[in-house]
Protein backbone atom coordinates (compact mmCIF):
# COMPACT_ATOMS: atom_id res chain seq x y z
CA UNK A 1 0.00 0.00 0.00
CA UNK A 2 1.49 3.34 -1.08
CA UNK A 3 0.73 6.23 1.27
CA UNK A 4 1.53 9.92 1.49
CA UNK A 5 1.86 11.84 4.73
CA UNK A 6 3.48 14.86 6.39
CA UNK A 7 7.26 14.72 6.34
CA UNK A 8 10.14 14.57 6.53
CA UNK A 9 10.57 11.17 8.16
CA UNK A 10 9.90 11.03 11.92
CA UNK A 11 6.74 13.15 12.18
CA UNK A 12 3.84 11.98 14.31
CA UNK A 13 1.91 11.64 11.04
CA UNK A 14 4.61 9.24 9.84
CA UNK A 15 4.17 7.18 13.01
CA UNK A 16 0.41 7.04 12.49
CA UNK A 17 0.85 6.10 8.80
CA UNK A 18 3.00 3.10 9.68
CA UNK A 19 -0.17 1.53 11.08
CA UNK A 20 -1.75 1.43 7.60
CA UNK A 21 1.05 1.32 5.01
CA UNK A 22 4.65 0.23 4.58
CA UNK A 23 5.50 2.21 1.45
CA UNK A 24 5.40 5.82 2.70
CA UNK A 25 6.19 9.05 0.83
CA UNK A 26 6.36 12.52 2.37
CA UNK A 27 5.27 16.03 1.53
CA UNK A 28 5.42 19.13 3.71
CA UNK A 29 1.85 20.26 3.11
CA UNK A 30 -1.34 18.76 4.48
CA UNK A 31 -3.25 20.05 1.45
CA UNK A 32 -0.67 18.29 -0.72
CA UNK A 33 -1.53 14.99 1.01
CA UNK A 34 -5.24 15.38 0.21
CA UNK A 35 -4.34 16.34 -3.38
CA UNK A 36 -2.09 13.29 -3.71
CA UNK A 37 -5.02 11.00 -2.90
CA UNK A 38 -7.68 12.98 -4.82
CA UNK A 39 -5.57 12.80 -7.98
CA UNK A 40 -5.26 9.00 -7.68
CA UNK A 41 -1.47 9.12 -7.29
CA UNK A 42 -1.60 7.60 -3.79
CA UNK A 43 -3.74 4.76 -2.42
CA UNK A 44 -3.73 6.30 1.05
CA UNK A 45 -3.06 9.64 2.69
CA UNK A 46 -2.84 10.32 6.43
CA UNK A 47 -3.64 13.79 7.78
CA UNK A 48 -3.77 15.13 11.36
CA UNK A 49 -7.25 16.48 12.03
CA UNK A 50 -7.62 17.33 15.70
CA UNK A 51 -5.60 17.50 18.90
CA UNK A 52 -6.92 17.16 22.43
CA UNK A 53 -5.13 20.32 23.65
CA UNK A 54 -4.97 22.59 20.64
CA UNK A 55 -8.06 21.57 18.66
CA UNK A 56 -8.50 21.49 14.90
CA UNK A 57 -5.84 21.24 12.27
CA UNK A 58 -7.71 23.74 10.14
CA UNK A 59 -5.69 23.20 6.97
CA UNK A 60 -6.80 19.54 6.97
CA UNK A 61 -10.47 20.47 7.47
CA UNK A 62 -10.36 23.03 4.66
CA UNK A 63 -8.62 20.64 2.26
CA UNK A 64 -11.28 17.99 2.95
CA UNK A 65 -14.09 20.47 2.29
CA UNK A 66 -13.27 21.02 -1.35
CA UNK A 67 -11.61 17.84 -2.60
CA UNK A 68 -13.13 14.46 -3.39
CA UNK A 69 -11.61 11.79 -1.19
CA UNK A 70 -12.95 9.11 1.17
CA UNK A 71 -12.18 8.71 4.86
CA UNK A 72 -11.56 4.99 5.49
CA UNK A 73 -10.11 4.93 9.01
CA UNK A 74 -9.37 7.05 12.05
CA UNK A 75 -6.13 6.71 14.00
CA UNK A 76 -5.72 8.13 17.49
CA UNK A 77 -2.27 8.33 18.96
CA UNK A 78 -0.88 9.79 22.19
CA UNK A 79 1.49 12.71 21.63
CA UNK A 80 4.40 12.97 24.05
CA UNK A 81 6.77 15.76 23.11
CA UNK A 82 10.46 16.09 23.90
CA UNK A 83 12.67 19.17 23.77
CA UNK A 84 15.84 18.44 21.79
CA UNK A 85 18.91 20.49 20.94
CA UNK A 86 22.69 20.17 20.51
CA UNK A 87 23.09 21.63 24.02
CA UNK A 88 21.13 23.55 26.65
CA UNK A 89 22.00 27.02 25.28
CA UNK A 90 19.56 27.98 22.53
CA UNK A 91 17.63 31.09 21.46
CA UNK A 92 14.93 29.65 19.26
CA UNK A 93 12.50 26.72 19.42
CA UNK A 94 11.37 25.34 16.04
CA UNK A 95 8.44 22.98 15.63
CA UNK A 96 5.03 22.52 14.04
CA UNK A 97 2.59 25.23 15.20
CA UNK A 98 0.40 22.55 16.84
CA UNK A 99 3.34 21.17 18.84
CA UNK A 100 4.46 24.65 19.97
CA UNK A 101 0.91 25.39 21.11
CA UNK A 102 0.62 22.05 22.94
CA UNK A 103 3.72 22.99 25.00
CA UNK A 104 2.92 26.70 25.46
CA UNK A 105 2.79 26.70 29.29
CA UNK A 106 6.02 24.69 29.56
CA UNK A 107 7.87 27.00 27.16
CA UNK A 108 6.56 30.15 28.85
CA UNK A 109 7.68 28.87 32.25
CA UNK A 110 11.07 27.39 31.28
CA UNK A 111 12.19 29.45 28.28
CA UNK A 112 10.36 32.80 28.46
CA UNK A 113 13.00 34.51 26.31
CA UNK A 114 13.21 31.95 23.52
CA UNK A 115 11.75 32.81 20.11
CA UNK A 116 9.20 30.38 18.65
CA UNK A 117 9.42 29.42 14.99
CA UNK A 118 6.60 27.49 13.33
CA UNK A 119 7.88 25.11 10.65
CA UNK A 120 6.11 22.57 8.40
CA UNK A 121 6.41 19.64 10.85
CA UNK A 122 8.06 18.54 14.08
CA UNK A 123 10.63 16.56 12.05
CA UNK A 124 11.49 19.69 10.04
CA UNK A 125 12.14 21.44 13.39
CA UNK A 126 14.47 18.61 14.39
CA UNK A 127 16.39 19.11 11.14
CA UNK A 128 16.69 22.84 11.93
CA UNK A 129 18.14 21.96 15.37
CA UNK A 130 20.56 19.51 13.81
CA UNK A 131 21.87 22.23 11.47
CA UNK A 132 22.03 25.08 14.00
CA UNK A 133 23.21 24.79 17.61
CA UNK A 134 21.19 27.89 18.63
CA UNK A 135 17.95 26.09 17.71
CA UNK A 136 15.98 23.59 19.82
CA UNK A 137 13.18 21.41 18.46
CA UNK A 138 10.01 19.87 19.87
CA UNK A 139 9.03 16.44 18.59
CA UNK A 140 9.06 12.74 19.26
CA UNK A 141 12.18 11.83 21.33
CA UNK A 142 13.17 9.09 18.86
CA UNK A 143 13.94 11.77 16.25
CA UNK A 144 16.88 13.09 18.33
CA UNK A 145 19.26 10.48 16.88
CA UNK A 146 22.94 10.78 17.78
CA UNK A 147 23.28 14.52 17.05
CA UNK A 148 20.78 15.98 19.48
CA UNK A 149 20.35 15.73 23.23
CA UNK A 150 16.92 15.15 24.72
CA UNK A 151 16.78 18.05 27.20
CA UNK A 152 13.30 17.27 28.57
CA UNK A 153 10.58 14.71 27.93
CA UNK A 154 6.80 14.85 28.28
CA UNK A 155 6.69 18.62 27.99
CA UNK A 156 3.13 18.86 26.61
CA UNK A 157 0.87 20.94 28.83
CA UNK A 158 -1.38 17.99 29.68
CA UNK A 159 -0.43 14.37 30.14
CA UNK A 160 -3.39 13.16 28.08
CA UNK A 161 -2.26 14.78 24.84
CA UNK A 162 -3.61 12.88 21.82
CA UNK A 163 -4.03 13.60 18.10
CA UNK A 164 -6.63 12.17 15.77
CA UNK A 165 -5.59 11.39 12.19
CA UNK A 166 -7.80 10.49 9.23
CA UNK A 167 -6.76 7.88 6.69
CA UNK A 168 -7.84 9.00 3.22
CA UNK A 169 -8.43 6.88 0.13
CA UNK A 170 -9.71 7.57 -3.40
CA UNK A 171 -13.45 8.30 -3.56
CA UNK A 172 -14.18 4.91 -5.12
CA UNK A 173 -13.23 3.28 -1.78
CA UNK A 174 -15.82 5.17 0.25
CA UNK A 175 -17.51 2.70 2.58
CA UNK A 176 -20.74 2.54 4.54
CA UNK A 177 -19.19 0.15 7.06
CA UNK A 178 -17.89 1.42 10.37
CA UNK A 179 -18.98 2.87 13.68
CA UNK A 180 -18.34 6.50 12.76
CA UNK A 181 -19.16 8.77 9.82
CA UNK A 182 -17.76 12.15 8.73
CA UNK A 183 -19.72 14.70 6.71
CA UNK A 184 -19.04 18.16 5.34
CA UNK A 185 -22.10 20.41 5.00
CA UNK A 186 -22.38 23.76 3.24
CA UNK A 187 -25.91 25.10 3.79
CA UNK A 188 -25.28 28.25 1.69
CA UNK A 189 -28.10 29.94 3.57
CA UNK A 190 -28.59 31.47 6.99
CA UNK A 191 -31.69 31.94 9.10
CA UNK A 192 -32.56 31.70 12.82
CA UNK A 193 -32.61 28.05 13.87
CA UNK A 194 -30.62 26.69 10.89
CA UNK A 195 -27.97 25.05 13.08
CA UNK A 196 -30.66 23.54 15.31
CA UNK A 197 -32.40 22.12 12.22
CA UNK A 198 -29.10 20.65 11.02
CA UNK A 199 -28.53 18.82 14.29
CA UNK A 200 -32.11 17.66 14.98
CA UNK A 201 -32.12 14.81 12.39
CA UNK A 202 -29.36 13.17 14.47
CA UNK A 203 -30.90 13.86 17.91
CA UNK A 204 -34.29 12.55 16.70
CA UNK A 205 -32.70 9.21 15.79
CA UNK A 206 -30.53 8.90 18.90
CA UNK A 207 -27.32 9.37 16.92
CA UNK A 208 -24.50 10.87 18.95
CA UNK A 209 -22.65 13.71 17.25
CA UNK A 210 -19.02 13.39 18.26
CA UNK A 211 -17.89 16.63 16.63
CA UNK A 212 -19.30 19.80 15.10
CA UNK A 213 -16.85 22.30 13.70
CA UNK A 214 -17.51 25.37 11.59
CA UNK A 215 -14.98 26.79 9.15
CA UNK A 216 -15.30 29.96 7.07
CA UNK A 217 -16.57 29.10 3.57
CA UNK A 218 -14.35 31.78 2.06
CA UNK A 219 -17.37 33.11 0.12
CA UNK A 220 -18.35 35.92 2.49
CA UNK A 221 -17.93 36.92 6.13
CA UNK A 222 -20.19 34.93 8.46
CA UNK A 223 -20.74 32.12 5.91
CA UNK A 224 -19.67 28.66 7.11
CA UNK A 225 -18.90 25.10 6.10
CA UNK A 226 -19.73 22.59 8.87
CA UNK A 227 -17.76 19.43 9.61
CA UNK A 228 -19.90 16.84 11.42
CA UNK A 229 -18.82 13.48 12.83
CA UNK A 230 -21.36 11.08 14.26
CA UNK A 231 -21.28 7.70 15.97
CA UNK A 232 -23.12 5.52 13.43
CA UNK A 233 -22.27 3.95 10.06
CA UNK A 234 -24.00 4.85 6.80
CA UNK A 235 -25.06 1.19 6.51
CA UNK A 236 -27.54 1.96 9.30
CA UNK A 237 -31.03 3.03 8.26
CA UNK A 238 -31.12 5.79 10.93
CA UNK A 239 -27.90 7.32 9.54
CA UNK A 240 -29.23 7.23 5.96
CA UNK A 241 -32.45 8.91 7.07
CA UNK A 242 -30.66 11.61 9.08
CA UNK A 243 -28.37 12.48 6.15
CA UNK A 244 -31.33 12.52 3.71
CA UNK A 245 -33.12 15.00 6.01
CA UNK A 246 -29.99 17.13 6.18
CA UNK A 247 -29.73 17.13 2.38
CA UNK A 248 -33.27 18.50 2.11
CA UNK A 249 -32.37 21.40 4.40
CA UNK A 250 -29.45 22.54 2.37
CA UNK A 251 -31.10 22.70 -1.05
CA UNK A 252 -29.05 25.74 -1.93
CA UNK A 253 -25.83 24.13 -0.74
CA UNK A 254 -24.43 20.62 -0.49
CA UNK A 255 -23.72 17.69 1.84
CA UNK A 256 -20.67 15.52 1.24
CA UNK A 257 -20.43 12.16 3.01
CA UNK A 258 -16.70 11.46 3.44
CA UNK A 259 -17.37 7.89 4.54
CA UNK A 260 -17.94 5.54 7.44
CA UNK A 261 -14.97 4.01 9.19
CA UNK A 262 -13.60 2.45 12.35
CA UNK A 263 -11.16 3.87 14.84
CA UNK A 264 -7.78 2.47 15.82
CA UNK A 265 -5.60 3.61 18.70
CA UNK A 266 -1.90 3.37 17.96
CA UNK A 267 0.68 3.40 20.75
CA UNK A 268 4.34 3.64 19.95
O1 LIG B 1 4.56 17.73 12.80
C1 LIG B 1 4.23 16.54 12.97
O2 LIG B 1 4.96 15.70 13.50
C2 LIG B 1 2.88 16.14 12.56
O3 LIG B 1 2.67 14.99 12.22
C3 LIG B 1 1.78 17.18 12.60
C4 LIG B 1 1.08 17.27 13.94
C5 LIG B 1 -0.24 18.12 13.81
O4 LIG B 1 -0.50 18.72 12.78
O5 LIG B 1 -1.00 18.15 14.79
C6 LIG B 1 0.68 15.92 14.40
C7 LIG B 1 0.63 15.58 15.71
C8 LIG B 1 0.96 16.55 16.78
O6 LIG B 1 -0.28 17.06 17.22
C9 LIG B 1 1.81 17.67 16.28
C10 LIG B 1 1.92 17.95 14.95
From TrEMBL:
<dbReference type="InterPro" id="IPR001086">
    <property type="entry name" value="Preph_deHydtase"/>
</dbReference>
<dbReference type="GO" id="GO:0004664">
    <property type="term" value="F:prephenate dehydratase activity"/>
</dbReference>
<feature type="domain" description="Prephenate dehydratase">
    <location>
        <begin position="2"/>
        <end position="170"/>
    </location>
</feature>
<dbReference type="GO" id="GO:0009094">
    <property type="term" value="P:L-phenylalanine biosynthetic process"/>
</dbReference>
<dbReference type="GO" id="GO:0005737">
    <property type="term" value="C:cytoplasm"/>
</dbReference>
<keyword id="KW-0028">Amino-acid biosynthesis</keyword>
<comment type="pathway">
    <text>Amino-acid biosynthesis.</text>
</comment>
<dbReference type="InterPro" id="IPR045865">
    <property type="entry name" value="ACT-like_dom_sf"/>
</dbReference>
<keyword id="KW-0584">Phenylalanine biosynthesis</keyword>
<feature type="domain" description="ACT">
    <location>
        <begin position="183"/>
        <end position="260"/>
    </location>
</feature>
<keyword id="KW-0456">Lyase</keyword>
<dbReference type="InterPro" id="IPR018528">
    <property type="entry name" value="Preph_deHydtase_CS"/>
</dbReference>
<dbReference type="Pfam" id="PF00800">
    <property type="entry name" value="PDT"/>
</dbReference>
<dbReference type="InterPro" id="IPR002912">
    <property type="entry name" value="ACT_dom"/>
</dbReference>
<keyword id="KW-0057">Aromatic amino acid biosynthesis</keyword>
<protein>
    <submittedName>
        <fullName>Prephenate dehydratase</fullName>
        <ecNumber>4.2.1.51</ecNumber>
    </submittedName>
</protein>
Amino acid sequence: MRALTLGPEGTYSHRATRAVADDIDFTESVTGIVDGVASGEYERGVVPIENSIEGSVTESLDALADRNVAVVQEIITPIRHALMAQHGEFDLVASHAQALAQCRAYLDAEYPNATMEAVASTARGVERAREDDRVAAIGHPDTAGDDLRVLAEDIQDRTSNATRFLVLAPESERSEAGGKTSLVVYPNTNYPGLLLEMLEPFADRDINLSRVESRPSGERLGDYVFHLDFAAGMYEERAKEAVAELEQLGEEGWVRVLGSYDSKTVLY
